[in-house]
Amino acid sequence: MNHHDSTDAVLNPTNLQAQQLSYAVSGKTILSDINFCLERGQVLGVLGPNGAGKTSLLKMLSGQTASHGQVSWRGKALNAYSPLERARQIAVVNQLNENVFALNLQQIVRMGWLPHKTLLSRETKQDHQHLATSIAKVGLSDKTEQTFSSLSGGEQQRGLIARALVQKAALIVLDEPVNHLDIYYQHQILKLLRTLAHQQQITVVMSLHDINLAASYCDHLCILDNGKMAAQGSVENVLQASMLEHVFKIPCQIRRDDVTHNLRVDFYPPNELEARRQPEIVQFPQPNTSDRRDYS
Amino acid sequence: MINKWSALLVLAFLSPVIGIFFGAAELSPTELYQCFVADCATPVNTLIFWEIRLPRVLVGFLVGAGLAVAGATLQNITRNGLADPYLFGVVSGAGLGASIATLLFDSQIGETLNLFGMLPNVSFSLALPVAAFLGAAFAVTLVQALAATSFGGRGENMLLAGVAVSFMLSALSHFLLFLGDPFAANKVIFWLMGSLARVEMWYAWIMLPVVMGSVMLLLLFGRRLDALLLGDENAKTLGVNVTAIRLMALAICAALTACIVAYCGGIGFVGLLIPHIVRRWVGVTSRALIMGCVLVGGSFMVLVDIVARSALSEQEIPIGIITSAIGSVFFLLALRQRQT
């Protein structure tokens, strides 16, 4: 873990850095001893079982919750930014579960202007152009006048990503962006985020449930287990069957996909894998790791 | 969009003009025109035009605009389309303040107390709106405190807390009126109904700066108020100081409602009805909503006042009765619409 001061940050591409993060709510530890660095334009996937602390970690990284330890963004501690300065750099995409007064897509997306506007400043021609291109980038140009709640889940998610683009954020933090979406939209959203990250050098941090989706679209993975970092690093380094079985409490195997050549994790119902490994003991299988290689 | 706005402007201009034609005394259009451009033909006409008709129309417009804007703002900051200064306890809070002021400054009890020098030497006309504002602010604080603690802060619960506070404060002011001398009670009874009957020109000079100031502030903070529609957490990530904005908006609602309720009583449901119509017709973002509420709310109140003045030939109906009758039906319709 390197320490950077602000002059270093210009030379060093490290953008987002977490040092010794910990977080507790009324005595209960939610996160402890989290450290990592993320370079500019990279996609970080945060994985882990329910209650592992994914949402808490995202909230700290976006400055929504204070924590022990330090998060720094571009070489400056996150809590040294004013809320407005932070909003100019960091966009948060949370699920929008209430839309009471039927705002349309464009009205939601243009709220991204907010951190860049004073009370009196007007909306310029460039603002409107930027708004239009941002909506075009997520492929929703023909739906600008539609009520936000009438859009499909995938379109809503893309709309919120467009808002982050309007916000001109260099870091986009997303809490489970593909939850409740069908497979088509899951891939569409993640591909969009990956493209934005790699083409526009936007850093993306998101929590995901599907390890294989994360493996296909993220550059960097963090696996959280009970508030601790179980593993982190590149996809190739992180995906280890023993670690995943320990964290997710479910048997798995790792293989390389024939088409994409990405690593894939196959999870099996508890007992199923062992049952097949040792067909003679069906009811109470004993896990036997030495057998695993034969079936992989 | 431009057509809609020009239609609204025409409506906002025409309704006061129509309002001036109606009244107990029969003034011909030529006489009224004469009053407006030059001097009235007779002193009676001068009195009717300048002392009765014009103040009534102007104050009516300001009352409608102010209540609609207060309602729209309350709805936006609570993210609940059923919020209204009347349902929210703001009106009954202002009523309580007004009742206390009436008892202290304008009755036997007040004079007795004043003998001991316990009250500041201010005129009743100033004390009334100030007391009403304090009462309204008290109600808002109470609702906020209730909603923030055991009710979990959900919009729905905030509304229910508002209804409870509303009843509590009404009970208090009724009790005070019951204790007070009969003349004071008679004076205060019109708050409970809401009426434009006693309107005088100087009411307009008090309401105008409050309504204009509030509208300007709300327009200035329009984008930030819009962000509140996304939910507090989302608004915070856009750099909005949610607590401060909400507090400011609540203070504005309290001020608007107080200066209206202090002089014209509790005219209910305008703050619920008008924003709904405006959202449908003009738009949901704060700046369009607020401007729309000023124009539609003002026109609506002036037009309803015409009905209040001319429906019964012998006497006029307190306008609050009419707006509550219209509004309560509308409230039920809005409730049903939410469920489907």
TrEMBL record, chain A:
InterPro entries attached here? Answer: AAA+_ATPase, ABC_transporter-like_ATP-bd, P-loop_NTPase
Where does the record place the ABC transporter domain? 16-251
Q: Does the keyword Transport apply?
A: yes
GO molecular function per UniProt: ATP binding; ATP hydrolysis activity
Keyword list (alphabetical) reads: ATP-binding, Nucleotide-binding, Transport
Superkingdom of origin organism: Bacteria
Matching PROSITE patterns: ABC_TRANSPORTER_2
Query: Which CDD domains does this one have?
Result: ABC_Iron-Siderophores_B12_Hemin (cd03214)
Q: Which PANTHER family match?
A: ABC TRANSPORTER ATP-BINDING PROTEIN (PTHR42794:SF2), HEMIN IMPORT ATP-BINDING PROTEIN HMUV (PTHR42794)
Give the family from UniProt: Belongs to the ABC transporter superfamily.
What name does the UniProt record give this protein? Hemin import ATP-binding protein HmuV
Gene label: hmuV
Automatic annotation (TrEMBL), chain B:
User: One Pfam family this chain carries?
Assistant: FecCD
Keywords, sorted A to Z: Cell membrane, Membrane, Transmembrane, Transmembrane helix, Transport
* Primary localization class, coarse: membrane
Q: Name one GO molecular function term.
A: transmembrane transporter activity
Organism's domain of life? Answer: Bacteria
UniProt membrane topology term: Multi-pass membrane protein
| Transferase listed as a keyword | no
Gene3D superfamilies per UniProt:
ABC transporter involved in vitamin B12 uptake, BtuC (1.10.3470.10)
Q: Which CDD domains match?
A: TM_ABC_iron-siderophores_like (cd06550)
The record's subcellular locations are: Cell membrane
Its protein name is Hemin transport system permease protein hmuU
Q: What is the lineage of its organism?
A: Bacteria, Pseudomonadati, Pseudomonadota, Gammaproteobacteria, Alteromonadales
Q: Which gene encodes it?
A: hmuU
